[in-house]
Design a protein that fits this description.
Layout: H1 2-14, E1 80-92, E2 95-106, E3 112-113, E4 115-120, E5 126-131, E6 134-138, E7 141-145, E8 152-153, E9 158-167, E10 176-181, E11 184-185, H2 198-204, H3 216-220, E12 224-226, E13 229-231, E14 237-238, E15 241-245, H4 257-267, E16 271-277, H5 290-306, E17 310-316, H6 327-340, E18 347-350, H7 361-378, E19 384-386, H8 389-392, H9 395-400, E20 409-416, H10 422-433, E21 438-444, H11 456-469, E22 472-478, H12 505-516
Parallel strand pairs: 15-16, 15-22, 16-17, 17-18, 18-19, 19-20, 20-21, 21-22
Antiparallel strand pairs: 1-2, 2-9, 3-8, 4-7, 4-10, 5-9, 6-7, 10-11, 12-13, 13-14
Helix pairs in contact: 6-7
The structure holds ligand IDC.
Length: 518
């Protein structure tokens, strides 16, 4: 007791500022296992505009604090993360009791031992019930070490631990965790992206496939951008309308030719967007299987091409709020893709789905000005779609300072009709009036979480604008996840040939919308 008091005094004197700690809120992974959950996934910064946007989690109990920056010097491909979940609090007499769940994931290719987790933000806390770890609070820090049975975390494995902490008053300090391995602060080692040689590129180049006759591609050929419009090979206004996949890593089964054919023939879709998440678990720059993901993109492009449909290769950034975070990987990826599809007339490149957090338009522009020339070196005129700040809502900012010296650039607006209304439409109007080609590469008619109620009236307002401005669009998302935006009913396991009864309400609406738009 005495000892704790003196520690507190020392801490008081030190007055260590623990504010200004950036936390990353990483949500439950959007895989089939969480199909029933209502996880909303986004990233924000505690000290800046946290919780200012509608996209912020409705259920934000699952806070994840990750710390990873510089690299280890050895060649091990370590990739571990530690998450702290605030599992609720209650009062017990005159004490405030908080429960935390802590999880370490060993996503690396080797076992990890001699681990330790230090989490700041526990000043004045007294440890109560706890499990699966050895806990000590000293000053502001909670230190967790292994118990006899979990000193080694096998590769691909994880440890789930937890504890209750009692305080004299409420404690809402941010919990910032650091993982140590072998006494060293753990830092994630990123694999250097490897570039393809000219020979490899030439080898992987796909021969142009002739589309089936009478298909959108046969009729309209290579698209380009003329002012605010997407136009076809004859320079006539053209509108892409179709569907986005969900994350390719999570719902790969919808990448099949019959599915795309159903969308083309029964819905009237002419475009498929292939969404490849970059930072989420299973994501391309996280722990995803790169060759499998590229294989899915490749399959998707082939099926769309054979069917004479257009196809968007989407670098689906989300939790990696700033596209510059994974710019090196993006450069390598788009170099490879654009070399492969240099002769294709139907491939569009979407280079950053939704920048967010503190990412500015000038960050995005710098990124775009790096990635676009890489694509152009292989494919001089494909349409390139560029994301905009605030989850691709601030197309007005891009209009104030557009990318120059490049043709065939479109800028993204994403909307979720129950959340985004006139405020975002007015940005589209501003950008359109300034001559920008706005592209709605993702939208749904529910709220920004991808779930919640459908707002048909707002959807109608959006489509009035889409029709008036001839905007191209792709609806989120082709899967049967139990969330409103999923286009297939969650009880339907068919991966193509859906009847109307197999569709969700959003699916029925989108099918009707696409098939009645001309
Ligand atoms: C959501 C999915 C959800 C998944 C989550 C992963 O609907 O199943 O668990 O991503 O983070 C976006 C993003 C898009 C989101 C979607 C709905 O581009 O990836 O998908 N959304 O939240 N921007 C606004 C909404």
């Amino acid at each position: 007791m005495k000892e704790r008091k003196s520690l507190l005094i020392i801490i008081g004197v030190m007055a260590v500022p623990i504010v200004a700690m950036a936390i990353f809120i990483v949500y439950t992974l959007g895989n089939k296992d969480d199909a029933g959950s209502k996880a909303v996934e986004t990233t924000t910064q505690a000290t800046t505009e946290a919780a200012t946007e509608e996209e912020v989690a409705e259920d934000d109990t699952e806070e994840t604090t990750e710390k990873a920056s510089s690299t280890n010097s050895d060649e091990k491909k370590l990739a571990c993360s530690v998450k702290v979940e605030d599992a609720g609090n209650w009062q017990d007499g005159d004490k405030y009791v908080y429960q935390y769940n802590i999880r370490i994931d060993n996503k690396s290719k080797e076992d990890v031992s001699d681990w330790k987790v230090v989490i700041a933000g526990f000043k004045g806390g007294e440890i109560g019930d706890n499990w699966n770890g050895d806990y000590k609070i000293s000053g502001d820090n909670l230190t967790i070490t292994a118990v006899d049975y979990n000193g080694t975390i096998p590769k691909g494995g994880n440890i789930e631990m937890g504890l209750q902490v009692k305080y004299k008053s409420s404690n809402d300090a941010e919990k910032a965790a650091t993982l140590y391995v072998g006494g060293e602060e753990y830092t994630e080692l990123k694999e250097e992206p490897t570039t393809q040689s000219a020979e490899e590129k030439a080898e992987s180049k796909k021969e142009k496939i002739e589309p089936e006759s009478g298909t959108p591609l046969e009729n309209h050929g290579k698209l380009s951008i003329d002012g605010t419009d997407v136009v076809d090979k004859d320079g006539k206004q053209y509108q892409l309308k179709g569907v986005s996949t969900h994350g390719l890593a999570w719902f790969p089964e919808y990448v099949n030719k019959e599915a795309f054919q159903t969308l083309r023939d029964e819905w009237g879709a002419n475009v498929i967007r292939l969404a490849m998440y970059t930072s989420e678990s299973g994501g391309y720059c996280q722990d995803g299987d790169k060759s499998k993901l590229k294989g899915l993109v490749e399959d998707g492009v082939e099926y769309a091409t054979e069917l004479g449909m257009y196809v968007i290769i989407d670098w689906h950034i989300l939790h990696d709020t700033n596209p510059k975070d994974n710019q090196d990987e993006a450069v390598v990826f788009f170099d490879e893709m654009s070399a492969k599809y240099a002769d294709y007339d139907n491939v569009l490149y979407e280079i950053c789905n939704e920048p967010n957090g503190s990412t500015t338009w000038s960050d995005i522009k710098e990124y775009a000005e790096t990635v676009i020339p890489v694509i152009r070196a292989n494919d001089k005129d494909a349409i390139i779609i560029v994301g905009t700040p605030t989850w691709s809502q601030d197309v007005d900012q891009a209009a104030d300072d557009p990318i120059t010296g490049q043709d065939n650039i479109a800028y993204t607006t994403h909307f979720y009709a129950a959340t985004h209304k006139d405020n975002i439409r007015s940005k589209v109007k501003t950008a359109h009036d300034k001559g920008l080609c706005v592209f709605i590469s993702e939208f749904s008619i529910c709220d920004a979480s991808g779930n919640g109620a459908i707002d048909y009236d707002s959807a109608e307002d959006w489509f009035d604008m889409i029709d008036e401005y001839n905007l191209s669009y792709a609806g989120w998302s082709l899967c049967n996840k139990n969330e409103t935006s999923a286009l297939i009913d969650s009880g339907c396991s068919k991966t193509s040939g859906w009847s109307d009864d197999d569709l969700s309400d959003a699916g029925k609406w989108l099918k009707n919308q696409i098939s009645t738009d001309d």
